[in-house]
């Protein structure tokens, strides 16, 4: 297992959030107090929500920006942590505080002259835009700042763009008003979700970590899956799926569970690149794992409207099941192909002691129950925190005292900084899209480029989401693609409906989940696959080969989104119980076939023709149509019988 220093070094290399200053002296206490105050403010507003949207969001923004300029250096060098805060960062932090307090201090005046911007407003608005972009660059990475800059340039020079991209353009005053003095820009929906749902769930995750749930996931996974064929790989899948419920970062998941599982996989006999690929694919899938998915899932609730968070989580359940089933199956067949066994008894924790602590899962189970009962999402998260505190008292080793509780509040706020910066910067992009009509123009252009073909439109959207995801966090990626590409998918799916018809919820969810999925798998798609690169840092394997292995293992994520766009049964929407069961059953059988075909082993090694037939069989079974199910099932039975019979003969011949 890697040491904390080695884990930190990998995180700093691939995760901007981890490359922060190692503060000492007065600044250490200032940041500590600021983070604690940030969490307390958010808890206070989540209990009663006593502030208007402008005040709530601007204070949230002020906290995040001011703390980022103290914590995150302007220039980063992996492995090196500076402990001094230069004077210019102090100034930027103070300006950020002023920006955050501008709406609360002048709220009455600003509301009275809505639509008119004073000279002071102009200065504050420009400062808000510049500070937001710089904070996002430091906390999230350069790509999102470049993208938002391109959108601002587009807003200014609209008349000079060709064809459908042209618009009348915006002057500085109207753009500043849009960005900071309406709820269509920086203070828009993305930041709104960050300042409400996301923050509280990040706090919930921080409290779970403090109780030791993260480590418990590893122990539980080893107990349940360690002795199976290729045990450590299955442990990685199981633990990463569970850890995904308390972490929205693929890279953090890789380092957290991978530092334990990857060395075990290598010791058992898995190739370095395959071991890293398993962990990267499983950790990335954590963001699509209900009940607590990635931060973008909370944005989806607001963007779609007329849907609860539980509705999103329920719709994502079967696709998530298929995703992890696919990885599980392929690691199983790889272990069979290479001849790997499970873990030895001395490598497995004491079963009774581990199962005795099963109560640590109660907060997560509680969240599911609260959401099922229809309790509002934020209240469910708050109750989850309370339940975590109660559960922690069951055992002395997990008990959270006052110090641990305070540290959980601080850690939760620290995690929220990058999310706040990303959502605020994404608000700039959304504001430009709304003001210029770019969303409709691009949706029309995308449909035109695809010739009105829904499959081509989906392919173009997938490629755009993956490319954007290579440089942007999932949250920002989802905001961009859901604003630009999702409308094109929705438009095509509604071609047979009246032009003034409301968007059916099933179409809206399938389109938004489609872009959400491909924004996530960008973390394991070469050439820029940050989760895979982080895994290769632990395994010692080649980063690109690790990325290829992770993308291969996560093949379900590249197939399932196309399937649920065409058939809502996979999303458990507008479908009977029998339809849901049948579609799930055939899809799982299909994943078995695809896994066998990709790995090249079922009951024996498969030749190239058999592999092609088996993969085609899997695709037919996953595609939710009666005729494809019948043909696919027939082929599956035939190929299964051939493999089982010849595989049995091969074993007898060897014996």
In short:
With about 650 residues, the chain is an all-alpha fold. The protein has helices at about 5-15, 25-50, 55-70, 85-105, 105-110, 120-140, 140-155, 170-180, 190-210, 215-225, 230-245, 250-270, 270-285, 295-305, 310-340, 350-355, 360-370, 375-390, 400-435, 440-450, 455-470, 475-485, 485-495, 505-520, 530-540, 545-555, 555-565, 575-600, 610-620, 625-655. The longest helix has about 35 residues, at about 400-435.
Q: Characteristics of this structure?
A:
30 helices; 655 residues; globular; mainly alpha
Mean pLDDT: 84
What separation lies between the terminal Cα atoms?
38 Å
Per the principal axes of the C-alpha atoms, what is the gross shape? globular
Which secondary-structure class do the elements indicate?
Answer: mainly alpha
Reading the helices and strands in chain order gives: HHHHHHHHHHHHHHHHHHHHHHHHHHHHHH
